[in-house]
User: What shape does this take?
Amino acid sequence: MKIKGKNFHTIWLKDDDEQVVQIIDQRFLPHELVIENLETVDDVERAIREMHVRGAPLIGVAAAFGMYFAALEAVDNQQFTKYIYESADKLKAARPTAVNLAWAVDQQLSFVSENYKILPSILLENAELIKKESIERCKKIGEFGLPLIEEIFAKNKKVVNILTHCNAGWMACIDYGTATAPIYAAHDKGIPVHVWVDETRPRNQGARITAFELQEHGVPHTIITDNAGGHLMQHGKVDLVLVGTDRTTRNGDVCNKIGTYLKALAAKDNNIPFYVGAPSSSIDFSLRNGFEIPIEERGAEEVKYIQGKHDGEIKKILLTPEKSPAANFAFDVTPARLVTGLITEIGICTASREGLLKLFH
Ligand code: MRU
Assistant: This one.
C-alpha cells in the first residue's frame, strides 16, 4: 500500500545491510512516519512487546526475522542451539494472544540444526518466504471477500457501509490487511464504500491507524467512538461488519481486539452479517474453543493516559484520577455462533469445526 504516494510494506530488510530489519514504528502514527532499525533479537522482542509493530500477521513476520537474528547471534555463542531455543521462547512470550507469533517462530525452529554456518541464511530466506506468503494470504482474503460487498451493492444500489474494529489493515499485516483487504478491493473496483472506524480504546488503533490507512488510500471513512456501533446498526447505517482475528480456534470462536464481541452481539441483534478476515496463520487447530486462548492483560497506563499531538509535539496526558486503578484486557472472544463467516485465503467458510474442516482438510 502507499503512504504519500510511495509504496510501503510494514517490515523489510534494509537495502544496503542484510543484518538490519526496518519497520514502521506504529506508536507515532498518524502524526509521524518513523522508520526504526532492528538489529538484534532483543530489538525485535521489544518492538513486538511495546507495539512498535502490532497486529497478528505482522508480529508473526517480525518474529520470523527475530529468529534470523537469533541464528546470527548464536554463532558467537558456545551453546548454539540452546541460544536459538531460548530466543524463540523470548519472542513467543512477547505477546501471548495472537497465534501467528508462535506459528512463525515454530516454522523457523523446524529448520534449526547444529550447522551454524548456513543456518542464518536459511532463516533469513524463510523469514522472507513467511512475509511473502503473508502478503499473498491477505490478497486472497480480499479476492474472496469482495463478492460480499459486491452483493450488498447490487442489492441496495447505494454506498456500502462497513464497520470495522481495531486495525486489521495493512499496518497489522505486511500489505492489504485482512479485514480491510475486501474493502480496498471493492474501493479499487469502483464500488462505493464507506467505513465506520471504531476508535478502539485504549490504544486507538482504529482512530490512529485504520483511519490513517484509509485516508492514504482515499477510502471514505468516519471515526466513531467505541460505543457508537450498536446505535448505527439499529438505524440501518451498517451493512456489514468486517474484523480481523488474533486467534481462531477449531470450533470457529474468534479472539480479536477487546470490544469485538460487543460488536458481534449488536450485529446479531440487528441481522447484520459479521465476517472475519482469518488467514490460516491465525487459526489454531490445537485449541477446542476460544476460552482456551490466553488473553493478554496490558498495563493500566494505557487506559489512564491518552496520546495525541499538541503544539506540534506527541504527548501523553493523564485522563483519569491519578490513583484510580485501571484494568486493561486486550482481547475478547466472539463465540462462533455470532460469526457469519470466516474469510480465509482459500475461501469463505462457516465459523465451525465442519466449516474449517471443509477448507483445511
Ligand atoms: O493489540 P493489537 O493492536 O496487536 O491487536 C490487533 C488486532 O486485534 C487485530 O484486529 C488482529 O491482530 C487482526 S490483524 C490483521
In short: Residues 54-57, 98, 166, 168, 172-173, 178, 205, 244-246, 256-257, 330 surround MRU (CB under 6 Å). Residues 139-359 form a domain with the Rossmann fold fold (CATH 3.40.50.10470).
